[in-house]
Amino acid sequence: MTSPSDAPGGTKTPQVAFRDARTLADPVFEVGGLSVFYGDHEAVRDVNMTIGRQQITAMIGPSGCGKSTVIRCFNRMNDLIPTARVAGKISYHDEDLYGREVDPIEVRRRIGMVFQKPNPFPKSIYDNIAYGPRVSGFKGNLDDLVEETLTHAALWDEVKDKLKTSALSLSGGQQQRLCIARTIAVEPEVILMDEPCSALDPIATAKIEDLMERLSREFTIIVVTHNMQQAARVSHRTAFFTADVDDKGERHGRLVEYDETIRIFEHPADQRTEDYISGRFG
Amino acid sequence: MSAPEKGRRRSAAGSPGFLRRSQPRHGEKVIKVLLVAASLVSVATTIGIVIALIPPSMEFFRHVSFGEFISGTEWSPLFKPPHFGVLPLVGGTLMVTLIALLVAVPLGLGAAVYLSEYADPRLRSVFKPVLEVLAGIPTVVYGFFALKAITPLLKDIWPAGDGPQVFNALAAGFVMGVMIIPTIASLAEDSMSAVPHGLRDGAYALGSSRMQVSTRVVFPAALSGIVAAIVLGISRAVGETMIVAIAAGGRPNLSFNPLEGMQTMTAFIAAAGIGDLPTGSIGYQTIFAVGALLFVMTLVMNLLSIRLVRKYREVYE
Fold first, then answer.
1. Per-residue pLDDT for A3 more than 60?
2. Which of B205, B212, B316 sits opposite A122 (nearest CB)?
3. In the predicted model, is pLDDT for residue B1 greater than 70?
4. CB A131 within 8 A of CB A138
5. What are the tens digits of pLDDT across the range B76-102?
6. Which domains does chain B have, with CATH numbers?
7. Fewer CB within 10 A of the end CB, N or C, for chain B?
8. Which whole number is the average pLDDT over A121-130?
9. Residue from the list B120, B199, B206 with its beta carbon closest to the beta carbon of A112
10. CA pair distance B289, B261, nearest whole angstrom
């Protein structure tokens, strides 16, 4: 038997070196009173948060707390779910993301997304990278762009001799890094990552985390994760979500606490955060 | 804790042979035999038809050289002197099939893309069954529709010249195309809907429009099913008999002019088959020779399409 204080994810984890918090003075997103409905069901209720530029914001919380729903609001992926409806406001550089004139396709070219399960297209490695530039009408030299992008994503050395082979021949971790590379090929400002490592082994996860850390110098990254260690390791700020169950038994996700990662993990203000971080529930 | 008591017929762990079957399961064997028999019926029928085609066809080619049959341009096997050049029938079949495909492939695939990628799920749940009802209309109805509605309509709206004859390949091919739209649309839609949603999400997240997702991601991934849908459509068009027998006339014609009447291979088989040809006569054997050729043509087309699909499709699993 291990004592509770040794449990993974406990508050006393000296091996984690927290990253310095950065300023929120130049925000990319400002979320105000955001609620998301699926049909009549309010899946997430009243979220307020500010996302800073060129830093990693982690969203953690138990299953069903709405963190994936929230991250899909940032590039309007929820538009693709017929019953989904968004209330409240998300500003992206002071522009209302859900404004009437806003084209979701334009939004997604600036705000890319990486998904839980690696989803490379069943095309060649080259064509996976070239896909985004091609659909957005890229006119330059694709060969150079593909090489630059793969180098940038630290994947070039592993795939340079097999650019024409199917992306599905890669390992799961390589596929996920290819999906990240595919995303940065369109030069977005923001990369959303919805549990990017949950289907990967620890070594592949470490490589993705390295990549995230390097990319955070140029990109603004929001990552949903189930892995609290990961949030502690890579993020500058952490948002803790949980779900309230109402008298009809329906779950409503809500944001409990949002702060610098070091504060969330070492001095959480809310008892529920403390309980979750220390592994007492979730 | 072992729980063999409580009325269960289970021998105690460790007793000799305790893992052997405790009660016989005869029913399972019977069911397996019945299921094998059910699947064998269709295979056996196909093999039986092929075997039945061979002897009369061989007999036919003892009288008529294969070269004359396959390259001759005159088909009049039941007249004197008989001519056994099958090209007019093949030409009629190809002409009508081509017209049918020109109608059915764009409309069928368009409908499939709409239903799979654009339509609201509620609309799709109404639309698809309606489309499939269209596939259930008897072909004799389509045949008269071609003869009595489409041909007169074509004559009325024809801008210049004489317009189509009473029996013509154009009306028959057009109506046949309408007939196979549901086959192509429904099968193509099934295979497009089966493309994993993760691929669409990935494409949308890179800033693709709906059309780009449909044509660049979903279509290539669903290609094998789409080609299968088109091949099935072609097979139905090549094998369709009633529409062409009614609306395209019964005169073998190698003109490739869609405004003229022409006889297809199937229409010849039907016309000759319901006549009173004596068994064993050369006329009787022609039916089998044409039937065998029809079979070979569809077989070759299926094999070609399999190779084509292997080469171009994007396997997503």
1. no
2. B316
3. no
4. no
5. 888 888 899 999 999 999 999 999 999
6. 90-279 (1.10.3720.10)
7. N
8. 96
9. B206
10. 23
| CB-based contact B201 A80, cutoff 8 Å | yes
Beta pairing partners, A31: A49, A90
CA atoms within 13 A on the CB side of A207: 17
Joined tokens for residue B210: 């709906």
Strand partners, A220: A190
Distances (CA, A) of B304 to A205, B14, B309: 45, 60, 9
**Structure tokens, B305:** 């399409």
Cα radius of gyration rounded to whole Å, chain B:
27
Q: How far, in Å, CA of B239 to CA of B234, rounded?
A: 8
Q: How large is the ipTM?
A: 0.90
In chain A, where are the structural domains located?
24-118+190-277
Q: How many cross-chain Cβ pairs, A to B, lie less than 8 Å apart?
A: 71
Residue keyed to tokens 């290609």:
B223
- Distance, CA of A16 to CA of A255 (rounded, Å): 24
Angstrom CA distances, B71 to B65, B66, B75, B76, B289, stand at 10, 8, 11, 14, 14
Fold of A24-118+190-277: Rossmann fold (3.40.50)
According to DSSP, the β-strands at A190-194 and A84-92 are unpaired
Measured CA angle at B221 (ends B220, B226), to 5 deg: 70
Q: Collapsing DSSP states into helix, strand and coil, what is residue A112?
A: strand
pLDDT digits (tens, 9 = 90+) for A20-75: 767 777 899 999 999 999 999 999 999 999 999 999 999 999 988 999 999 999 99
3-state secondary structure of B310: helix
Would you call B311 helix, strand, or coil by DSSP? helix
Residues 42 to 101 of A: which have CB under 8 A from any B CB? Answer: 75, 77, 80, 82
- From A20, A34, A17, A27, select the one nearest A222 (Cα to Cα): A27
